[in-house]
Amino acid sequence: MNQNKQQFSITETVNKNIENHQFPSFRNHKSLVGWCTMNYPRVLKNPLFMPKPQPKEDPTHLDYLYQLKMRQDAEQKFTLKKPFQNLQKIQKPILEEKVGVPPDGYKNSTLSLTTSKREARSKIIEETNKDLPQYSNFLPLSCEIPVSKVDENFSRHVRQIGEITYEPNYESEEVRHLKKLPNSILTEQNLMEVLNNELKYLNLQNHTWIKNEFVNKIGYFAPNIEELNLSGTDLVDEVLYELAISCSKLHSIDISNCPVLTEQGIKKFLNAKPNIKKFFAAHNDHSVTDFSLQPLKDAPQLQRINLSFDYNITNATLDYFIDKGQKFKHISLSNCQKLSGEKLSVIIYNSMDHLKHLDLSFMTNEEASKHIMEKIGDCRQLEQLILTGTTNIEDSGISQMINGTNSVKKAPTFQFLKTIKLGGLKSLTNGQLSKLFQITPNLEFVELNNLENISEEVLVTLIKYCQNIQRIFINFTPSIGDAELEEIKQQNPDVLIVRNINKFTDVKDDGLRMPFPPVNLKKKKKKKKKK
Question: Which of 37, 219, 384, 468 lies at a CB distance of 3.0 to 4.6 Å from 419, suitable for a disulfide?
Answer without folding.
Answer: 384
